[in-house]
Amino acid sequence: MCVLVDAIEEEHYTESKARREDDDWQQTSSIHPMAGVKRNRAEMESKEQEDSPSPYLPMFEHFKSEIDTHHDRRERVIKASRDITAYSKKIIFALQRTKEIGKPLTDRKALTDMTKLKQQIKETFEGVTDDLQGINAHRYQRQISPGIQEFMEAALFEHYLVNQAIMTHSEAATTIPAGITLTYEDYVLGIFDMTGELMKIAITYMATNGKLPGLQGGASVLTDMQTMRTQLELINAGHGPFAKEFEGKLRVTRQSVEKVEISVYSMTVRGKEMPKGWKPDINMRQPVEEIESY
Fold first, then answer.
1. Which of 112, 126, 280, 293 has the greatest number of beta carbons closer than 10 A?
2. What's the whole-number mean pLDDT along residues 4-32?
3. Is residue 232 part of a domain?
């Protein structure tokens, strides 16, 4: 009996001791959550990396700044190109009022308007000169090119009306502010566009005067256009975006020359039978063979 009592007391003592140890461990864990848990090295290093700044952060901040600067510069160039295009179109419209070729312009209103527009174009070019230096001249060529082409069309058109001649590339480059590059591609594409304006001048002049505009005893607009067409057809545009644009504008130039040729044909063959002021039908279907001269 004594042995049984001793066994029961020993069991109660053991359970009581175990409960006390369990309570002590829980109290310790509540104070130190990680007490008794061994942390591995990888977790410790990860914690240290989270606390310290990334060594790549400054590099990506630099990239972000470069991209923001690029987009701002690109938007400025695009806006400038659009403004130059709009101003140049107004100059071309004013030049269409010219009544004679090979003589100085005399329309005072047109001259006044053109002077203001040229100044606006100059200021717009100068506003993006810094954005088009060095490698950026090539980087943003596609953005500024439309404006340069339109301005070339206006400058070449004015020069032809006054002198009945085409400016060379070096002469045309002087019409653009220093720091802006005039590529041969933009120069040639500007000539293409100018032939369309010459076609309008020629047909309007024939409708009101019964003859082609040009110097007395010299070449006419038609012969000049035919010469330009022949010279442009000799250019090897190669491959790429320029070649595609070149072919498209060459096709339009051929159509412009053919319209003037057909109008001259109509004026020469049938014009004498028509009343004064009769306008040749430029939409008449072209003949099978090209008319080289009249």
1. 280
2. 54
3. yes
